[in-house]
Write a structure and sequence with these properties.
Blueprint (H helix, E strand, L loop, with lengths): L1 H19 L3 E6 L1 H5 L18 H4 L2 H6 L1 H16 L5 H9 L5 E6 L5 H5 L4 E3 L2 E8 L5 E3 L25 E5 L8 H11 L4 E5 L11 H7 L3 E5 L12 E3 L3 H18 L1
Parallel strand pairs: 1-2, 1-7, 2-3, 7-8, 8-9
Antiparallel strand pairs: 4-5, 4-6
Length: 263
């Protein structure tokens, strides 16, 4: 155990040293970041809602079959995110915005924990739980309060588009759908120029991590992985930190600040 802790401390120090010379730093974050606040993930054994398959609640086909079920699922997730708090990993990422010349948090998470921690330089490539989109037209809006899942019993109870009258849907990207063009273009252009990319709490299994690590490595940038488990992205990482983000990210930030204070 002591030897393992020593290896992780050394990895944190190496990560801080790499970041200390970086100007443009990106972060590619996944569900593991928010899981440490208590939000379940789809890929956890306990992450399914009342035994429903992901295919039933996170695909266009599922919404067409049973929009009430899908809306209740996302309404409950809206409520759930109000019952948890950002963890030290979220706060460390928010603080990093002020450390580098340019910074971008590319998150797959649809919750609002990063924003609540203070992150402003972020792009949400999978949408946002509090957004609402029309099922038919281009209308979009943002909800001020979570929808009460108990109020959704029939299709007549569901939100509707004020522009065309069609059903509205949760504003998240479902399996089989295209990512929002503006969001993914911003993420690609940033990683194509970034000096360093941290991958945090993501397996990289969805679309191969969208190639963000390839963009960074393609011009000689460095990749730092923060994840307690080996992932699809591990073989592309220059530094592996086998720890949860709530522990590793504050440690990296503390070490980085120490290095900056000595400069």
């Amino acid at each position: 155990m002591v030897a393992e802790e020593g290896r992780q401390d050394h990895a944190v120090e190496q990560a801080a040293e790499i970041l200390n010379t970086a100007r443009l730093v990106g972060v590619f974050a996944g569900a593991g970041l928010s899981a440490e606040s208590g939000l379940p993930t789809f890929r956890d054994s306990g992450g399914l809602w009342e035994g429903h398959r992901v295919e039933d609640v996170a695909t266009p086909e599922g919404f067409q079959r049973d929009p009430v079920l899908v809306w209740r699922f996302y309404a409950q997730r809206q409520v759930d995110q109000t019952r948890v708090e950002p963890n030290p990993g979220h706060y460390a990422l928010a603080a990093m915005e002020e450390v580098f010349e340019d910074f971008l948090l590319i998150t797959q998470n649809v919750d609002n924990l990063s924003e609540r921690a203070g992150s402003r330089k972020l792009v949400k490539i999978h949408g946002d739980l509090m957004e609402i989109w029309c099922w038919r037209c281009e209308w979009k809006s943002v909800l001020e309060q979570p929808v009460d899942p108990g109020s959704l019993r029939t299709p007549d109870d569901l939100p509707r588009c004020p522009a065309c009258g069609s059903l509205a849907r949760p504003g998240v990207v479902w399996f089989g759908e295209m990512l929002p063009p503006a969001a993914i273009e911003r993420a690609i252009s940033f990683t194509a120029a970034a000096d360093v990319l941290l991958t945090v709490g993501t397996s990289g299994l969805v679309s191969g991590g969208y190639g963000f690590t390839d963009y960074v490595r393609g011009h000689g940038g460095k990749v730092i992985e923060v994840n307690p488990n080996e992932t699809y992205l591990s073989e592309q990482a220059d530094i592996l930190i086998r720890s949860g983000s709530a522990t590793a990210l504050p440690a990296i930030l503390d070490r980085l600040r120490l290095l900056r204070s000595r400069a």
